[in-house]
Amino acid sequence: MKKIINDPSTVVAESLAGLAAAHADVLKVRTEPAVIYRADAPVTGKVAVISGGGSGHEPMHGGLVGLGMLDAACPGAVFTSPTPDQVQAAAELVDGGAGVLLIVKNYTGDVLNFETAAEFAEGDVRTVVIDDDVAVKDSLYTAGRRGVGGTVLLEKIVGGAAEGGYGLDEVEALARKVISQVRSMGVALTACTVPHVGEPSFVLADDEIEIGIGIHGEPGRQRVPHMPADQLVPALLEPILEDLPFQSGDRVLLFTNSMGGTPLIELYLAHGIAERLLAERGIVVQRRLVGPYVTSLEMQGMSLTLLKVDDEMLRWWDAPVRTAALRWGV
Amino acid sequence: MKKIINDPSTVVAESLAGLAAAHADVLKVRTEPAVIYRADAPVTGKVAVISGGGSGHEPMHGGLVGLGMLDAACPGAVFTSPTPDQVQAAAELVDGGAGVLLIVKNYTGDVLNFETAAEFAEGDVRTVVIDDDVAVKDSLYTAGRRGVGGTVLLEKIVGGAAEGGYGLDEVEALARKVISQVRSMGVALTACTVPHVGEPSFVLADDEIEIGIGIHGEPGRQRVPHMPADQLVPALLEPILEDLPFQSGDRVLLFTNSMGGTPLIELYLAHGIAERLLAERGIVVQRRLVGPYVTSLEMQGMSLTLLKVDDEMLRWWDAPVRTAALRWGV
Predict the structure, then answer these.
(1) Banded model confidence at residue A211, pLDDT cuts 50, 70, 90
(2) Is A209 in Cβ contact with B263 (below 8 Å)?
(3) B266 vs A5: CB contact, 8 Å cut-off?
(4) In chain A, which residue's Cα lies nearest the Cα of B323?
(5) A226 pairs with which residues across the strands?
(6) Which of A217-226, B139-148, B156-165, B210-219 has the lowest mean pLDDT?
(7) Mind telling me how many Å the CA of A120 is from chain B's nearest CA?
(8) What domains can be seen in chain B, in order of their start residue?
(9) What does B100-165 look like in DSSP terms, one character per residue?
(10) Which residues pair with A303 in a beta bridge?
């Protein structure tokens, strides 16, 4: 295992120190328990939006903390749920008196720990669970579908609305609408190695890929021989389109995500194919996001996410954001 | 070789199509010869700033085209210099009547082809060559030092000044000042595979790294056993500090760059160590950039770049920028 680390047991804490040093204008980090939070938190009178999950998916979630997006993120150990006390500490740090929304990806440990925190928290703390991965139902770590790339879109739109003055009821309703209209699917070309494990999470042959992979390397739909991009992109896109379903005339946000180790030159190539396929079906791409936002350490691979948008979602997607990973308008 | 491509011979063209589809608000792409250029080019009365080089280092340079940065970028084949006719076509597309500055990384082919283009171009077209890599003098593809991570900082600062109204003499002088004060060094943990080659560019053993690697995998200073981050970061930073030299009281911009395949969790960990080492020496980090900006396809590894800044450089670093990869203030 060759990684730029000192000790697997201190990777998250040392990485958070670097994050804090790099982005002191945007965020702060506290330890024991670990929380990344907005430098100007709490923002009085604003609904606080909090997320979190296992580390190793950076920039999600710590790189999404800041104006117009998350008030706080709770980083667990690599690929491990954060604890309830992290979530409670986050809620106490950023609660501005207008309530708290917890955005949880649908993994058994995450759901349990966030809901436990919500139960014991003071004030109005609500939970929404995102489960956008169409690949499989019930998987390693999950009952039901997994939460993956759609989480970034959800956090941007909901974070924008909270910044823009939505109350907790409105924020929660918007979150549930986004969750109902977003779908994703991914593929792995290579595995990744969790630092405290020291071995790849799974093994793919030299000419083999896994369609429908989870962001922790959980099994997908099938292992198949590697294929050209013109076949691979439809293999991800078709199940997404069929699921909602997305239809001619729908307006969408297309998110082409790298799992971490895939070069941008390949990611843009795949994005171009997805744009073409959607245009052929009469689906109108109105916004795009391309890059490594929901990663699995150094895994090579990608995912596609489609969100069926309306004017309300576009308004908050376009709203100013200032985080380590996403920034515009400010 | 597992890559998300169709055919090695069409990778660049297909990727550019995806880039254009993703960022139509910022840039346009023309083909034969390939040029990426600002959507609103030419900007009348503004000095045009153009760069380019082999593909495979994305987001540099195409992802740096837009308001406040590059007017155009000329993408060669992967790890291959662009041709003089690409550079000439770019100059014709974006020349706003106030002259053109070509920013060239110091590789023999790049320098030759950009200078040939400058010679045959109409109008006032000047060239600056960046050679910030302290690792080696004379290397595969290079006479003298290589141009690496400092290029992104140069393009941001010079692009900002050109947007802000600097004339060609001022832009050129600022570029030469930045080049004189920026130094970099990189390390590879793994090799990368050029699509049209199909095999890794070099081979590192399971416990071996290469200090001083070039961004095309050119040999560095030494192959050594892998080491903890607390030793690796100083091994990159010390040669940089000694070279200029950087001294106590100096104000700097610290750029911690991923070679592509290194997870952000590791990159921020390394960044934190670099911040601490600089603080211990009394060197004042006034701005930071952390992320994959000058990559070598899927190579795992990183580089550090230090720029000794002054108020003029900070002013244009902070100025608004809107590109695919860097965006703030707009």
Answers:
(1) very high
(2) no
(3) yes
(4) A328
(5) none
(6) B139-148
(7) 31
(8) 15-180 (3.40.50.10440), 182-316 (3.30.1180.20)
(9) EEEEEES-HHHHHHHHHHHHHSSS-EEEEEE--B-S-SSBTTBSSPPP-THHHHHHHHHHHHHHTT
(10) A186, A257
